[in-house]
Each structure stands twice: as structure tokens, then as C-alpha cells.
Design goal:
Largest sheet: 3 strands, parallel
Helix content: 25-40%
Number of helices: 4
Order of helices and strands: HEHEHEH
Shape: globular
Number of domains: 1
Distance between the termini: 26 Å
Length: about 120
């Protein structure tokens, strides 16, 4: 069972999911968006596996109050992402805590929603 299926089938009522800086295949994210209808927070910032301007994913996530796709890159199956190669550039090399552009009060809401989500 892949990770997306595990989330969908074991945590169908999950309210908060932070996938930041993860490798998530597009179809896996699509499955989560289709099946986890109680999500209030989904942060998929700096992910590999899909483009952040994907209209279908954006539409599927439109019901989520705090839905963020930012700085995401689609992986091409033919690409070899060997970190030892000269041409490889880790997309998180330029990461800084300020790069997300959250306003403090909105970020605080996200954090509290995630914490509250553990108490059904």
C-alpha cells in the first residue's frame, strides 16, 4: 500500500496534512484530495511530483480552507535525480523560513487547526 492509500484508508477523516518538502506523485495527491473530504489544512509547499499550477489539483483542493501548493515541481519519469550529479539542484537548497510568505496570524490559524485536528 502506498502512502496516499494509507492516508485515505486509515485516516479518512484527517483534518490536517502537511506534506511540505516531500516527494508526492501527482496521482497520490489527487487521491488524497478526492477522498479526504474533512481536510481543513493541506500544505504541499516545496514538493516534488506535481506542478503547483495544476488546475485539476487546485480545483480538487478548493474545499480546503487552508490549501497551499507552492514551489512544487513535476518529476519526469525519464529524469535521473542523482544528488551526486553536477546538474542536480536540490529545490530546497534555497529554503529559508521566510520563503513561505505566511502572515503570522494565518500561520497561527494553520498550526492551531492542526493541533485541534488531533482531538476529534
Amino acid at each position: 500500500m502506498d502512502e496516499a492509500s494509507a492516508v485515505v484508508f486509515n485516516l479518512p477523516e484527517i483534518k490536517c496534512l502537511r506534506l511540505m518538502r516531500s516527494t508526492v506523485p501527482r496521482e497520490s495527491l489527487k487521491l488524497i484530495l478526492q477522498r479526504c473530504k474533512k481536510l481543513v489544512v493541506l500544505d504541499a509547499t516545496d514538493c516534488l511530483g506535481f506542478n503547483d499550477d495544476d488546475e485539476e489539483l487546485t480545483s480538487l483542493g478548493s474545499h480546503i480552507k487552508y490549501f497551499k501548493l507552492q514551489n512544487c515541481v513535476q518529476l519526469d519519469d525519464s529524469d535521473d535525480y542523482d544528488s551526486d550529479d553536477d546538474y542536480y539542484q536540490n529545490p530546497w537548497d534555497s529554503y529559508s523560513s521566510d520563503s513561505y510568505g505566511y502572515q503570522d496570524d494565518i500561520y497561527q490559524d494553520w498550526v492551531m487547526t492542526c493541533i485541534e485536528g488531533f482531538y476529534y
